[in-house]
Design brief:
The protein has 210 residues and is of the alpha+beta class. The chain contains 2 helices and 9 strands.
């Protein structure tokens, strides 16, 4: 039978601890925090005929691969730094004739993980990273949209300025054409006026399409 439970080599009892709700003899489950990284179980055999010849074996199922032989004079099973998870501590005994009991004494052991190893912490980190990536993505998209708006505005202003300049050139050429008396100059001014007007119309058509 399991007789004692120790934390950091201090015996724990139901009267002075939250670890045991009743005597360790009747306890079915013990829950530890990850900071309770040194613990041990004490045990004995209910055979008083040649008790010095009793033998013991124990196993922390989920951690120990094989049964561990115990010293009959030091009936303690000690563990340190066991990973978080669920385990079952089992211990069995043999009497002086070498007969092992069929059903070992056992107690379930739960070691809680630190918060950074819990599912809700992983979920929080995942949601934070998703939110961060989305924020960066939206920031970049908004920057691109702002740059595109600025480009369109600059292009529109340039188009308006070019169209206005071409119109002025055409009108100025027409005025000079009517004032000049030189036929060659008048013809050149007429070509300038026509080409400016044509360029202005083409430019206006390009602006409407784009």
């Amino acid at each position: 039978m399991i007789t004692d439970f120790y934390l950091f080599d201090q015996r724990i009892s139901a009267s002075d601890s939250n670890y045991l709700s009743e005597s360790i003899h009747f306890t079915e489950q013990i829950t530890l925090d990850y900071t309770d990284y040194i613990f041990s179980f004490g045990f004995t055999a209910l055979n008083y005929h040649k008790p010095s010849q009793n033998r013991f074996m124990y196993k922390l199922e989920g951690f120990d691969r094989e049964w561990v032989k115990a010293n009959s004079n030091y009936r303690r099973a000690a563990y340190t730094n066991i990973p978080s998870g669920e385990y079952i501590f089992k211990v069995k005994a043999a009497n002086n004739d070498g007969y092992w009991n069929d059903k070992p004494a056992e107690v379930r052991l739960i070691i809680l993980p630190p918060y950074w190893q819990t599912w809700w912490f992983y979920l929080s980190v995942a949601l934070f990273l998703i939110g961060l990536f989305y924020t960066v993505y939206r920031f970049r998209v908004n920057k691109i949209l702002e740059m595109e708006k600025l480009r369109i505005k600059i292009a529109s202003d340039l188009h308006d300025e070019v169209g206005s300049t071409l119109t002025k050139v055409s009108m100025r050429a027409e005025m000079l054409e009517t004032e000049t008396k030189d036929s060659k100059s008048a013809a050149a001014l007429k070509r300038i006026s026509e080409q400016s007007r044509e360029a202005s119309l083409n430019h206006a058509g390009y602006c409407l399409v784009n």
